[in-house]
User: Which sequence fits this backbone?
């Protein structure tokens, strides 16, 4: 499921100014923005590149309503299209009926650096004020005057690229994997940027080639100079298109994550430094086929062993406390199950556990939008808990399949 470019443009929209100021702007005749986009490495026109206008953030405040679930889904599936254009064969573009004001131009063409190149899928979805200001620090500024034509030419610089193959350890190609690009930060950590399952499901990755092909090949392009690595998950979540139908298979509890260097922990990642415009096509990654196990069990109350029907469980590395498996919601009978867990010593972390009226839990699930119904932790988090239990960590040793692993929670906290 990929969104149209116009829908993607809405992710960059900012909170509106006051109604009176907006009326004053609307009262003025609009302006026009024209220009050309060129490729810096060849000097030739950047053909069929996209160009978007982002309003200046000066004097604006963050709109907290942008970050609730309903608002985010609305912007993804049908928000305002914003102001954008597509360049022609000669690299020219034109945008009419532009409200007077200060804007920043955001051009995009595969293989070339964009003001969006350093941003993650999550940052683009949320479109926060900080994200918009990051874009402003890298984009061309233009002033649109009432009734006048504002002209500007933009030169794009070719970025670095990172590619390779993703395989299973028996030598077969890992097809339909959506690797996530990681970039090393000044403070030493890794930031998630392009690609990933989130970007793939919502169609906001600018790198269509980032999804592995039938030979397991992937490639990220348009990268600024820096140190990069990748993380990939087993392709357990995919959109499935049929004749007149579309379904989304989501199995987040089975999403084993492997990082560059074929490791499971971010602290062990092996990256590569890329210079401006450098190409590297040998960053390969291997998913294990053997040595993976299932972990399943139940969460029960310690006083009478009744199943706890709300809360989340996740698997944490016992050594450096990094997350091996993201949180999943408990089933109504208190059960949980993880697949494809590597051998090792971990902590099973139980959080936000509580007893919830079953009818209220079902009502919360029905109230979630269809896309997010597959994320039961949202529904269980929305339900009001009759009793709540303290968070706990329990030692978990995985050498073989672990079945019927029971965690008894201490007495509940106050209602």
Assistant:
């Amino acid at each position: 499921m990929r969104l149209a470019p116009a829908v993607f443009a809405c992710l960059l929209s900012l909170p509106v100014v006051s109604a009176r100021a907006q009326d004053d702007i609307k009262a003025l005749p609009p302006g026009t923005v024209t220009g050309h986009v060129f490729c810096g490495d060849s000097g030739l026109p950047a053909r069929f590149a996209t160009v978007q206008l982002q309003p200046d953030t000066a004097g604006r405040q963050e709109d907290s309503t942008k970050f609730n679930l309903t608002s985010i889904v609305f912007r993804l599936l049908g928000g305002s299209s914003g102001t954008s254009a597509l360049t022609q064969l000669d690299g020219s573009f034109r945008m009419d009926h532009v409200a007077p004001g200060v804007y920043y131009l955001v051009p995009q063409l595969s293989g070339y650096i964009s003001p969006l190149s350093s941003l993650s899928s999550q940052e683009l979805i949320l479109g926060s004020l900080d994200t918009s200001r990051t874009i402003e620090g890298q984009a061309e500024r233009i002033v649109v005057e009432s009734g006048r034509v504002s002209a500007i030419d933009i030169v794009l610089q070719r970025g670095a690229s990172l590619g390779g193959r993703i395989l299973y350890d028996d030598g077969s190609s890992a097809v339909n994997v959506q690797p996530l690009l990681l970039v090393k930060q000044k403070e030493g950590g890794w930031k998630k940027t392009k690609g990933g399952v989130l970007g793939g499901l919502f169609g906001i990755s600018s790198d269509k080639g980032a999804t592995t092909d039938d030979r397991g090949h992937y490639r990220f392009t348009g990268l600024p100079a820096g140190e990069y690595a990748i993380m990939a998950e087993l392709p357990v979540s995919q959109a499935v298109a049929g004749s007149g139908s579309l379904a989304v298979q989501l199995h987040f509890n089975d999403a084993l994550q492997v990082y560059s260097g074929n490791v499971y922990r971010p602290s062990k990642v092996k990256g590569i430094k890329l210079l401006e415009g450098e190409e590297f096509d040998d960053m390969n990654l291997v998913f294990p086929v053997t040595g993976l196990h299932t972990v399943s069990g139940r969460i029960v109350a310690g006083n009478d062993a009744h199943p706890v029907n709300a809360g989340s469980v996740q698997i944490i590395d016992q050594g450096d406390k990094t997350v091996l498996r993201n949180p999943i919601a408990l089933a109504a009978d208190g059960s949980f199950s993880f697949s494809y867990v590597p051998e090792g010593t971990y902590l099973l972390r139980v959080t936000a556990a509580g007893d919830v009226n079953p009818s209220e839990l079902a009502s919360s699930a029905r109230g979630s939008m269809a896309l997010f119904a597959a994320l039961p932790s949202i529904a269980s988090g929305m339900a009001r808990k009759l009793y709540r239990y303290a968070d706990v960590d329990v030692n978990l040793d995985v050498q073989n399949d672990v079945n019927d692993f029971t965690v008894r929670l201490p007495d509940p906290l106050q209602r």
Remarks:
- The mean pLDDT is 81.
- The longest helix spans residues 69-78.
- DSSP finds eight helices and 26 strands in the chain.
- The CA atoms of residues 229 and 271 lie 5 Å apart.
